[in-house]
Amino acid sequence: MEFTEAYKQTGPCCFSPDARFLAVAVDYRLVVRDVVSLKVHPPSVPHLLSPLRSQGSRDCKDYINLLSCHSWEIMSAFAVDTVDLAGVEWSPDDSAIVVWDSLLEYKVLIYSPDGRCLFKYLAYESGLGVKSVAWSPCGQFLAVGSYDQAVRTLNHLTWKTFAEFTHAASIRSPCNAAIFKEVDDPWQLDMSELCLSEGFSRNMQDNGAENGTEGGGSRVKYAVMDVPITLPSTKPATDKPNPKQGIG
Question: Which of 32, 45, 109, 238 has the highest CB neighbour number within 10 Å of its CB?
């Protein structure tokens, strides 16, 4: 296995839509590389101030910069009400921009392209906040995954929550969901009609005994479980960063 040279990176990276180029934030610079040769591609734009997914930070405030894809000129720039901006996404119909704060602050902000704050959403104040945000393909719904094991869905008309989905620890009837459990299904091979050498046959039997199967292997299948059932869970370590919890 061959690896390329490690290149410096201090911010997020993103592929171009045609996957020909890779944009990487390095300190205050935006570096664009060719994905085949990894050579630095000549800029289309002289420089971007604080490039970070079209966002920046000035005067201890987070800003969003909107650039024209034709001239690469900054069309507008406005500050956002975040402590440490974690991400920003255009809606599919380009009518709104969603911004969310760091995981230490639960805050989701909806902005218009001209910088007006359309809605500020806070589900709770204590605990870790937003982990993932995703638009529906039509742009009419916005799903917010949180570290409290819940997904909250907002509509594009009032930006109010109209549905909330939680990860239940136990499932009881009545329940419309089907619960599947992954189980190992040993292969049952009929080798009575095969003409194999004695050594090869003994080797297959030995391997099957080591694996706990008679046929020398197993396959995975899914069995439907009956309710009530308790779902297994593992508590993340409290002394390690980036806990593996929440809705991703």
Answer: 109
Whether 146 contacts 123, CB under 8 Å: yes
Q: Regarding predicted confidence, which is higher, 6 or 153? A: 153
Instruction: Please report, for the domain that includes residue 158, its CATH number.
Output: 2.130.10.10
Residue 132 lies in a domain: yes
Asked whether the bond before 228 is cis by omega within 30 degrees of 0, the reply is yes
Contacts 24+ apart (CB under 8 A), 40-48: 44/72, 45/72
- What is the model's pLDDT at position 195? 60
Amino acid 199: pLDDT: 59
Residue type for position 95? S
> What distance in Å separates the CA atoms of residue 22 and residue 162, rounded to the nearest whole number?
38
94 belongs to a structural domain: yes
pLDDT exceeds cutoff 80 at 224? yes
Question: Which residues are CB-contacts of 21 (< 8 A; sequence separation ≥ 6)?
Answer: 15, 32, 33, 34, 35, 41
Nearest to 145 by CA among 189, 98, 201: 98
Strand (E) or helix (H) holding 100: strand 97-100
Residue-range definition of the domain harbouring residue 127: 13-48+60-166
Domain assignment present for 177: no
Number of domains composing the chain: 1
Instruction: Supply angle C-alpha 160, 95, 97, rounded to 5.
Output: 70
Q: What is the pTM of this model?
A: 0.61
Read off the tokens for 176.
Answer: 């419309």
